[in-house]
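User: Show me a protein chain along with its predicted structure.
Assistant: Here is one chain, sequence first, then structure tokens.
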Amino acid sequence: MAHPTLNAVDQAEQVTALRAVFRDADKPTRQKLVPILPPTEITFAGIRMYVDPRDNYTDRRMWLDGQPPEMKSLTALMELVEGRNALILDVGANCGAFAVPLGLAAGPGSRVIAFEPNPAMIGRLGHNIRLNNLGDVIRIEGCALGAETGEGVLNFRRDNFGQASLKSIKKPVRDGGTLVPIRPLLDFVGDAAAHDLTVLKIDVEGFEEAALGALVDAGADAWQPDAILIETVHADTWETDLVARIVACGFKDVLQVEGNTLFVRQGKAT
């Protein structure tokens, strides 16, 4: 005898109920629930995203809230690129929470280069690109960015692929790692002049100095993007004052929100 299966309505009701339980639960209970949270597709502002809340914080927040967790940061970038021929460099693209909405918001001729070295997340990122018909706009680069060409160990954090890092992770929460290629950022900006605007978003769990070093060291007279959104919540782990180095290149701090800082090159991005 065949077992009955849930129809779409029943499944949706179960997911809604589970979300309510998860939202109201304390931290220990949430940790126990995480392994059974169901992967699903969500839609926000006409954008389709497949999320797996079991292994990634960004996916988990999207599954719970119906939108990316850094909406203020994302909205600020979407307003910059909307309708414009933009080159968007998404460093630490994760599941595509920034790359996909920005690819949809940008104007004709735009290109998004999504840098994501984590093999597990590359597949999810590619799926979300396909869901939104952005295969001719977003290019995935399966590498990390650093000071020079080479390779490094990407360390995984348990239950959160989004916090994978080229920096060391303490053993209690480290869940293995994998060798990944490393390339300099400036290798990917050769076509920037073909676009009216270049936006750089970077979230690489404390490895920002190595990824941006050559760019900021080149100074204000060299090529620079028009805007930089950088996760600054890990600034206390940097060996130098990267914020001051960015400002010295002619950028102005225009927004601090959600652990990120948005810098705009004065007179260029607005």
